Fold this sequence. Notes:
Elements: H1 17-41, H2 43-48, H3 57-61, H4 65-71, H5 76-79, H6 87-108, H7 110-131, H8 141-158, H9 162-178, H10 184-204, H11 208-233
Helix pairs in contact: 1-6, 4-11, 6-7, 6-8, 7-8, 7-10, 7-11, 8-9, 8-10, 10-11
GO molecular function: serine-type endopeptidase activity
Membrane topology: Multi-pass membrane protein
Pfam families: Rhomboid
Amino acid sequence: MSAYQPFPRRLKWSDAPLTGGVIAVSCGVYLLMAVQAAQRVGLSAAITDPLQDPQNLGWKLMLMGGYMKAYDEGWRVLTAAVVHLNLTHLVLNCIFLALFGRPLERNLGSAVMAGLALTSAAGGAGASLLMHPEAPMGGASTIAYGMMALLLGLQWTHRDQLGATLVLVVLNFGFTLTTPGISLWGHVGGFVAGLAVFAVVRSAGNRRHQAARRCLALGVVSVLAAGAYGVFGLGATSIPLS
Length: 242
């Protein structure tokens, strides 16, 4: 595995199509949520907090254990990663995705990053369903925490600027623990999933194609497992549907 360069001087978006795609889809979903909410709660509220609209698209995409169980909506483990609760939530997650995702994707390739995105989204959703199933959860921070874990692992392997990333990880988890309304288990699950992807990448060594195949396989299995748990594994009466 070649030495990792966390913040190269020149980095184009064309080097990171997967990261750019996740950001674009997240922004597109938020735009649709805002347009829909504007008809019911007004333009200003729709821009800053579209989920004030109880019939909003965001509620249909968010991770909600009760609806997954009742209506076989296992796909929510994926859609939850691109729905955001408010404008601040969206902006912060897009910043972190760009900060970590672009250099990682340039070094490891888009296929590995696709595997990371799937694994981390499923890991965050699965952990949330397991530990706090009644709480709605959404946001690309599950993927961002997976990126942080992967970056931390790579820098630990190469003894490369580990301190700065470790500080970011500690600060982010500190913010998660001290701020109401943030899904701790979603972040923990995404981070642990990122460590799993790091283990796969490290085991493949310089065999990039093998790393890509293994990461994609891990991502698909993780999504299927988390979705199946939400649909079949949750208790039938323990999750409120409203």
